[in-house]
Amino acid sequence: MKRLPEISDAPHAPRRRRMLSDEERQLWESVARQAKPLRKKARIAKPSAAAVEPQAASVAAAPARAVHAAPASKPAKAAKLPRAPSPPPLAPLGRRERSQLSRGKTDIDARLDLHGMTQTRAHGALLRFLQRASGDGLRFVLVITGKGRTTGPESERGILRRQVPEWLGLPEFRALVIGFEEAHIGHGGGGALYVRIRRAR
After folding, report:
1. Would you put residue 132 in left (φ > 0), alpha (ψ -120 to 50) or beta?
2. How far is it, in rounded angstroms, from Cα 108 to Cα 66?
3. Residue 84 half-sphere exposure, CB side, CA atoms within 13 Å?
4. Share of the chain above pLDDT 70, in %
């Protein structure tokens, strides 16, 4: 009769893990780099009812957006507003006109005296006076600036005498005035100006 081997209830001692050698590690890394995962067919998930509704709504709204969308190929050009023509430059009075004014052969249609006014007040008064003269169809007017004080610092003398010719060169005045010249001594000399009016169209 054969003798059966004895079965021991004692647990087996755990096996010790063997460390890979350098050659085995290089071989394993080479194999791991070349390995490709198996391809699995991706499951097609059924769209939920909540996802279908927004998608259907966007499909339905797409044609409406396409109708109103502007073409992307050519950007719309901004409409150019027509520029208002700038008034022509001032022209000096001719010798004949000045001579006739100084001798009284050509009438001075109106006069404006700016004596004693501040610059702000004088500017407004001159603009209104010339607007009326242009609207009334006047031809020549006399603007009296005064020669300024004879005493005091030079910078304070004859402010309006210096400022009025500069104002007449501004676009708002050039639309009303053709030209101007210093008046004859009988009309105020250096303290006054003959101004030729541009008639309103």
Report:
1. alpha
2. 71
3. 5
4. 61
pLDDT band at 155 (very low <50, low <70, confident <90, very high): very low
Beta bridge partners of 193: 143, 182
**The token pair that represents 156 in the structure block:** 């304070």
Architecture (CATH level 2) of domain 95-157+168-197: 2-Layer Sandwich (3.30)
Whether the full predicted model's pTM is greater than 0.70, yes or no, is no
Distance CA 64, CA 143 (A): 68
Check if the beta carbon of residue 132 is closer than 8 Å to that of residue 175.
Answer: no
Compute and round to an integer the Cα radius of gyration of the chain: 51
Whole-angstrom distance, CA of residue 50 vs CA of residue 60: 16
Number of Cβ atoms within 10 Å of the Cβ of 28: 11
